[in-house]
DNA sequence: TTGTACGCGTTATCAA
DNA sequence: TTGATAACGCGTACAA
């Protein structure tokens, strides 16, 4: 209702027969087409098209008439029809495996806003981690003639390539097993290094590592990063090796207690996730250690609710998955434009310092 | 030009000039069209169409030939073209306001799987809570000729209606302010009743309510449900009134301590969210109360990571937002089919009992 | 049973 | 500068 009377009255008067009174405007009217605009402006359809698309070979006065008519009819070009002749849908598919997971969402958000929605819309499908369903969705997306595809894995480990697909594909979060594909992942090893270097910088010397499921590649990578950072300072992990278990608070608590028994002088813990870190913090408090005065703690994920609700607030490595999603979208656009990338690209996280790793003092 | 030489080179041999050797198949070939299929099968395009669409008026042997040809060419009908003539895109828009929020995701998942993806795909857009951007996205969705629209609000409060839109709209999670629209929301009052009735059933008599932001309608509704349930049993809220503050653990801890001072006999707390409930649990433990032996606790949300990580595991009301999303999709499909609903429909949650509210014993 | 003709809404080409 | 014509890929009415 902004401008006034725009929409329906395309046919002023002509509609005659059906309704009778001019009262309730026939809003069942279908959206205005270019032909409606052309007719109203008194030009041919192609001319109307050129005028609205800002092509130079059209008289100014004509263009004005057409634009006017378009505005009056609230004309919006039918994207499907445009796509049909242009042979592109202006659409990309987002094939995810775990919408419920916390990880695919930021990636998805980043991707979604990297494409200006005007030009490229996002078709969402969640395969629920089922390969069959994924194939199903893939076919459906191709039937819709998506111009490209982003595949978001459910966990940060290598996954099966989609294989030959007639449109460009970018893998995000979980890399493809085919090195010819383009994949974007977080630098987990770098995350481990980042965390431990920070702990060392605050003067810690006895640094343990408690992390989650040893089956995850990210678990191993983060541990390796931690080990390397310590090695550069001539140190080793407290306890001699990382304590790997599950991505849960409970594991964090239990592992912390064993580690304290083995290394009473412990003055820092790098936890493999914020959830694990929560467990670490709780166990430390209950064992009478003060954080950060006695022991500093750093997690991974920067899961807001968890990190800021912790006591004290948790320092953590933010993997910046939203940025990862944005970059994925950029790579995909480049590929759609004819400049594909290939191989695995690792994106760095960034440290978010809160109270749990403040320097002693 | 009608039948003779289809597009280019997909047909064996003729491509000649460019490549040279017949080695690598020209996979840059555009997807097969119905015309390609018809040509290969030696029939006309409409016949091929009928054959593939299972229409009866086609000889069996012909149908076989066509299906065969389609399979050989890996033919997939172009949904855009189908939609163009059918005047429907087979697409619905999902207009959300806070992808990062935990609440819109389940709704979105439910909606996504209620539409069989084959027939209806979901176009995702996140307005980031910005009304301008929402208008933008709305226009873009309409340009893509979505057949319907689901609007997922960012918090469980009344939001502005989109107003007149040429396709059916369903509001989920946050209801529209226009009673003529169709809205689906959680029954927050019912959730409060559910929680308190459960606490009473386990023998509790001194029940407090600690909840979040008093500006939320859901906060008031849950409190009212709690009050009503107590009243039915001839009781009042411990402390005389609900303690409202913020959706944080910290608030949960602080409020719990005040409540214990005011009501030393407290034997149950209904927390307005799982996060608040976590704070309640921690404070109770630190004040020396055992859960559930001394005090039982029930939350709202069934936020897995939070509820199962709690000590003890947290009983909670699951609002079943995924189901809400499914129902929203069903209502939308009905509306698209010509049978619109209107008004606000409230969907019940369900109680998930864990250790924190086990009967004393 | 099969094919011809046409429409869906838009853009590109080329002649006027 | 403008418009007739064709094409994009498919479905449907109707004639053969």
Topology:
The structure is a homodimer of 361-residue chains.
Chain A: H1 34-41, H2 45-52, H3 60-72, H4 79-86, E1 91-96, H5 104-114, E2 121-126, H6 131-143, E3 148-152, E4 169-172, E5 182-186, H7 188-201, E6 207-211, H8 217-232, E7 243-244, H9 249-262, E8 268-271, H10 274-286, E9 296-300, H11 304-309, E10 315-318, H12 321-336, E11 343-347, E12 350-352
Parallel strand pairs in A: 1-2, 1-3, 3-4, 4-5, 5-11, 6-7, 6-8, 8-9, 9-10
Antiparallel strand pairs in A: 10-12
Chain B binds a DNA duplex (16 and 16 nucleotides) through helix 2 and helix 4.
Explain what this protein looks like in three dimensions:
Chains A, B: Residues 32-86 form the HTH lacI-type domain. Chains A, B: Residues 1-32 are annotated as: Disordered. Chains A, B: GO terms for molecular function: DNA-binding transcription factor activity; transcription cis-regulatory region binding. 2 copies of one chain form a homodimer. Chain A is of the alpha/beta class. Chain A has 3 domains: 1-77, lambda repressor-like DNA-binding domains (434 Repressor (Amino-terminal Domain)), CATH 1.10.260.40; 90-186 and 321-347, Response regulator (Rossmann fold); 188-318, Response regulator (Rossmann fold, 3-Layer(aba) Sandwich). Chain A contains 12 helices and 12 strands. Chain A has helices spanning 34-41, 45-52, 60-72, 79-86, 104-114, 131-143, 188-201, 217-232, 249-262, 274-286, 304-309, 321-336; strands at 91-96, 121-126, 148-152, 169-172, 182-186, 207-211, 243-244, 268-271, 296-300, 315-318, 343-347, 350-352. In chain A, strands 2-1-3-4-5-11 form a 6-stranded parallel β-sheet, with helices on both faces. In chain A, helix 8 (217-232) links the parallel strand 6 (207-211) and strand 7. The termini of chain A are far apart. Chains A and B meet through helix 4, helix 5, strand 2, helix 6 and helix 10 of A and helix 4, helix 5, strand 2, helix 6 and helix 10 of B. Strand 2 of chain A pairs antiparallel with strand 2 (121-126) of chain B, so a sheet runs across the interface. The structure holds a DNA duplex (16 and 16 nucleotides).
